[in-house]
Amino acid sequence: MNWGQVVSEIVLEPEYAPGLQGLEEFSHVLVLTHLHQAEWDPEKHLRRRPQERGDMPLTGIFAQRARHRPNRIGVTAVEIVEVTDGTLKVLALDAVDGTPVIDIKPYVPYYDRRDATIPEWMTRMMRDYF
Amino acid sequence: MNWGQVVSEIVLEPEYAPGLQGLEEFSHVLVLTHLHQAEWDPEKHLRRRPQERGDMPLTGIFAQRARHRPNRIGVTAVEIVEVTDGTLKVLALDAVDGTPVIDIKPYVPYYDRRDATIPEWMTRMMRDYF
After folding, report:
1. Is A66 helix (H, G, I), strand (E, B) or coil?
2. Full-prediction pTM beyond 0.80?
3. What ipTM describes this predicted complex?
């Protein structure tokens, strides 16, 4: 599916709602999630060929963004749609419905934006995927 | 101090060392840390004026990158210096010595790089700080 158009609603526990104050002045956030449906089986996940594709190199979990990882924490950089009392709406959050959110951080280009390069295999995988 | 020149060494538990395979093909990583020296006191930290400065607005923790937050997880985007057997060297990791690393993810511009804007107060704070 096309995640790019999905608006997700993050609802805070009431005691944390005041923590959103001022977030509407930022354009983007990092959302940290607990990947609660992921598993960790070192035999299967410590090293694997991305998407089980034979034309992909054997790759360690720390060189992949796969969700089956030792500490099941996801990090997603998303655009803010709306901040209301205790609720944050964001665009294109790559998480299944009901995923627990464990932190919200404002996206700060000085900390978060990098001119980074990726391997050829990942470029190829993303070209096929998107 | 000038973090920009510091090379940090992340040493994996031996059982996770194979998980680094292929990481040397990326230029940057996201390092997730347990901010083990941070505290969480809602009275003090849920909303505060950044750096306790009177000229900063009262701001919620989810609109700040301060380490005193409900789930003490740090996310830092850093350049890879070297990947060796079970050890990763990175540049300018903003973490005190001994900080536990809980995940390493390859930095992928498609997921992580955003043209984001920040509030005037943060621009002002960073100008004074760096």
Report:
1. coil
2. yes
3. 0.94
